[in-house]
Amino acid sequence: MAKKKPLSRRLQKQGVPEPLNESLVTRKRKAAPDSDEFDKRRKVDKQSFAAKSNGKKPVNGSAPNGKAKGILKKAKAQPIASKPKPKSKKVPVPKEDEWEDADSDGDLSGDGIDDPDIMEDELDGVQVSGLDALGSASEDELLDDELAESGSNFDSDEEVKQQGMWSEDEDDDEALDKLTAANIEGLSKRLDKQIAEDEEAGDAELQETNMQTNILGDPEKIIDDDEPAPQHLAPDLRLLRERINETIRVLESFSQLGEKGRSRSEYTQQLIKDICSYYGYSEFLAEKLYSLFPPREAFSFFEANETPRPIVLRTNTLRTHRRELAQSLINRGVNLEPVGKWSKVGLQIFETTVPLGATPEYLAGQYILQAASSFLPVMALAPQENERVLDMAAAPGGKTTHIAALMRNTGVIFANDASKTRSKGLIGNIHRLGVKNTIVCNYDATEFPRVMGGFDRVLIDAPCSGTGVISKDPSVKTNKTEKDFMKMPFTQKKLLLAAIDSVDHASKTGGYIVYSTCSVTVEENEMVVEYALTKRPNVKLVSTGLVFGKEGFTRHMGKIFHPSMKETRRYYPHAYNMDGFFVAKFKKIGPTKAGPIVNGDKAKMENGTTVEEEVVDRTPIADDEKSDDEFGGWDDSEDEKLILLAKKKAARRKGKDPRLVDFNASKAKARMKSKTQAEE
Ligand SMILES: C[S@@+](CC[C@H](N)C(=O)[O-])C[C@H]1O[C@@H](n2cnc3c(N)ncnc32)[C@H](O)[C@@H]1O
Predict the structure, then answer these.
(1) How far is the C-alpha of 262 from the C-alpha of 360, rounded, in Å?
(2) How far is the CA of 422 from the centre of ligand 1 (A)?
(3) Probe ligand 1: pick from 376, 416, 417, max atoms within 8 Å of CB?
(4) Which of 256, 284, 301 is where one domain is finished?
(5) Residues 459, 378 contacting (CB under 8 angstroms)
């Protein structure tokens, strides 16, 4: 029987997943095309592989013509038992719980259409637009910018079947039936694909079981360091993949399967090398990412980075309701479904015949194309109506406009970004989506709170290396160096401290800071958070309130982090079919103490470099240093004091450290003294 193609990740649901199904990996191996096809798919450069393989032959025992020997060959020669019958499934009519209660019915008033530049971008046949935030920008997007030059599972079928497609506040009218009918065609197509996938998975699982049985009974040589690899030949990717699988299996049962005389780390090194060759990563980054997971999960992570994430849009509740929007788009031939019950505003797009970045609904600001992961920091921030909120790194505004919608256009948002170029997109989105409570500013956010402070909540969606969005930007695989993982955390730490210092700990409704990145590295996440906890004892980590996500690390590669780090959340493409992401939420519990003078306190970084802390001394200067002389009179030394005091106040108003005034004054005094002496 001809095999149906399994459902691509883009068509799979986002959010809380079924547990990772390793048969997906096995299925791919089984269906692995010829090495030529692999070559085309991932554009692995033949010569670079030859160089990378470093004088070793690419696959154990494989002759240059790609024939496998030993364990691999045996594994392949195993008979495949008859296929298990997949259980038939009903058409799932998914629905969602009430979770986020602030944004289900928005104020529909708003500005007219005001979108400067729409462009189309073919993404697997789904056309999207230019201004939208299809995820968070990585550092590289800043290159044109001056500043950059100087930086559980609840989605099971059971639950789904019991519920309708839309959230409770939406499913009590006839529209639901119509909508469900309109979507039924799309849903049954998906069902067919799902059944095909189940068949395939069952088949692959069985084959894998057979292979495992063989391996467990017959450990053999995987690493071969005798024969050098032929430099001029392209890797046999199918065999390479098989060796990756075999090495993982050995690492999983090392005492039984490990070759005598070979250490675990030899296997690990071999595996990392193979991952580099297979997926095209630099060894440096592959090692860093590999260290985050057990071997098999690492493989799933690397694999997931090879496929695009689903297209998702966020309903702009300032302009419409999700169901109305869904109806309009369905009428235009868009096959969609709620993104998952964790969000009341997200719609996942399966197919579309129209460019999503140019529909009348898009132009009217009814939605923004936004990666599902980008919803998370704003949901964690949970801004309230009438608050004062700072979005420190806001462009192009996916999160700012989400915050505005949650606040129903009340209160005030300061949307800041250091990049003027990117800020144009931010302004465009603010206008298009009818946001009216936002002031855009263009500072280096490390200058806060000297620009402004006293916020109820601050979001710092920090610039990062982008290791969570490799499927969107594969250049990350090779263009990140050790230096990047020093520079980035340096900026991120400064930004996070600035965010903390900008929040009013005494806020009646808030006092929260959310730190997020679209990166999965520990350097940019837990280590930044740990640094902030150390430097600012006036904050503590609190629950993000997000209903899914993996706990942040409390230890990693010998480093131990604060136990509350488990309150932070990590998101991975292989686990949730969404971009890699990190979210931490802090509560400020006291004022930031006036710290040491600028340049005085330098925080030690991992690599021995230092981060300067720019703590603004906000201790009030007493106004009661008055002259004894009720009638004034002239008292030079007293006048000097008063002048100094006034200068300090002026300096503080300008955000400068007042102690610099003392410093300058004593320098001036010394200059005068030496001048006088010279004259004498
Ligand atoms: C991850 S993106 C922000 C995405 C945005 N929050 C959204 O949802 O659309 C990071 C942003 O940080 C900005 N940035 C980088 N360094 C900055 C700094 N020192 N101060 C303020 N913004 C900065 C970049 O220009 C970039 O737009």
Answers:
(1) 63
(2) 8
(3) 417
(4) 301
(5) yes
With a cut of 60, say whether residue 29 has pLDDT above it.
Answer: no
Interval 177-190 mean pLDDT: 51
Token readout for 230 is: 């032929």
Domain C-terminal end among 241, 266, 301: 301
Domain-embedded: residue 339: no
Catalytic hit among 276, 441, 464, 518: 518
pLDDT tens for residues 472-481?
999 999 999 9
The tokens for 613 are 């802390």
On whether residue 665 sits in a domain, the answer given is: yes
Cα 245 to ligand 1 centroid, rounded to whole Å: 39
Ligand 1 within 6 A of CB of 422: yes
User: Based on the number of CB atoms within 10 Å of its own CB, is 197 exposed (0-12), middle (13-18) or buried (19 or more)?
Assistant: buried
C-beta of 135 in contact with ligand 1 (< 6 A): no
Residue 136 corresponds to which tokens in the numbers above?
């968070």
Cβ of 377 below 6 Å from ligand 1: no
For residue 219, the enclosing domain spans 9-86+197-301
Alpha carbons 346 and 522: distance in angstroms, whole number: 29
Gap from CA of 395 to ligand 1 centroid (Å): 6
Is 3 inside a domain boundary?
A: no
Ligand 1 neighbour 468 (Cβ under 6 A): no
The answer to whether residues 389 and 413 touch, using CB atoms and an 8 Å cutoff, is yes
276 is catalytic: no
CA–CA–CA angle 605, 606, 611 (5° rounding): 10
Residue 616 Cα to ligand 1 midpoint, Å, equals: 23
For residue 439, give the H/E element and its range: strand 438-441
Question: Does ligand 1 have an atom closer than 6 angstroms to the CB of 22?
Answer: no
Asked whether the ipTM of the predicted complex exceeds the cut of 0.90, the reply is yes
**Residue at 50 is within a domain:** yes
Go through 148-185 and write b for each residue having 16 or more CB atoms within 10 A of its CB, e for each that does not: beebeeebeeebbeebbbbbeebbeeeebeebbebbee
Q: In angstroms, rounded to a whole number, what is the distance separating the alpha carbons of residues 409 and 400?
A: 11
What is the β-pairing status of strands 581-588 and 569-571? Answer: antiparallel
- Reported in sequence order, the residue ranges of 9-143 that DSSP labels E, i.e. its strands, are 121-123, 126-128
The answer to whether 153 touches 18, Cβ cutoff 8 Å, is: yes
| Residue having the nearest C-alpha atom to atom 17 of ligand 1 | 418
Q: How far is CA 564 from CA 60, 209, 377, 518, in A?
A: 45, 40, 18, 21
Q: Give the residues across from 604 on adjacent strands.
A: 610
Q: Does residue 512 sit in helix, strand or coil? A: strand
Give the phi and the psi of residue 287 in degrees, each rounded to 5.
Answer: -65, -45
- Residues 6 or more apart whose CB falls under 8 angstroms from that of 347 comprise 312, 313, 314, 315, 322, 325, 326, 329, 336, 337, 338, 339, 367
Q: Write out the binding residues for S-adenosyl-L-methionine.
A: 393-399, 417, 444, 461
Per-residue pLDDT tens digits for 277-306: 999 999 999 999 999 999 999 999 999 999
Tokens of 78: 């195993």
Gap between the Cα atoms of 332 and 362, Å rounded: 12
User: Best mutation site among 145, 390, 416, 419 for ligand 1, i.e. most ligand atoms within 8 A of its Cβ?
Assistant: 419
What total of structural domains would you count in the chain?
Answer: 2
Count, residues in the chain: 680
In angstroms, what is the span from residue 51 Cα to ligand 1's centroid? 37
Does the beta carbon of 493 lie inside 6 Å of ligand 1?
no
Pocket flag, ligand 1, residue 199 (CB < 6 Å) = no
* pLDDT digits 0-9 by tens, 631-667: 344 456 666 777 788 788 777 766 677 777 777 777 7
Cα radius of gyration (the chain):
29
CA gap 130, 635 in Å, rounded: 66
